Amino acid sequence: MDFLAYAERSAALVNARPADAAALREHLADRPWLQERVTDEDVERLRDFTTRLRPVFEASSAGDAKGVVARLNDLLATHPVTPMISDHDARLHLHVATEDASAAELLIGESLLGLATLVCDLGPTRLGVCSEPRCDNAFVDTSPNRSRRYCSERCSSRANVAAFRARQRAAAV
């Protein structure tokens, strides 16, 4: 189980906001075995879950460590995670749900266990919301000095270009 990958998938799920089963299947394009399980009920459960998960990223972005922990603990209480040991690929490792879990149960479990582990290992301020004004994507900050402010290089470049142009306009006045 790669907890960092699960935390990053959590941010991707918050950003995806799948509107229907087809959109959720598209979001899961790299996991065809999970695409087959997607139902309309999964979409509804995930929509509710991601609505409650986004404030965790917002609290972290605002430096509210207690808020991050409280919100994650509330989600963990609402969606208990039951890790199971598996050996399906000839090595022992953890899964966050049983083989017959729904797509929503699996994604929620991965998200919560990944985020809880990340918060415990790296701290509660390693999650964020993009600082580029036209973007509100969530992200996981794995930078060495906790300095990430943007969800992607694209948003970072956009913000830097906008700041450069603003300085040029101010200098021209």
What this model shows, in words?
- By secondary structure, the protein is mainly α.
- The protein has a single domain (3-172), classed as Jann2411-like fold, CATH 1.10.3300.
- 58% of the residues lie in helices and 7% in strands.
- It has 7 helices and 4 strands; from the N terminus they run H-H-H-H-H-E-E-H-E-E-H.
- The chain has helices spanning 3-16, 21-27, 32-35, 40-61, 65-78, 103-122, 153-172, and strands at residues 84-86, 93-95, 127-129, 138-140.
- The strands form 2 sheets. The protein has a two-stranded antiparallel ribbon. The protein has a two-stranded antiparallel ribbon with strand order 3-4.
- Strand 1 (84-86) and strand 2 (93-95) form a beta hairpin.
- The longest helix has 22 residues, at 40-61.
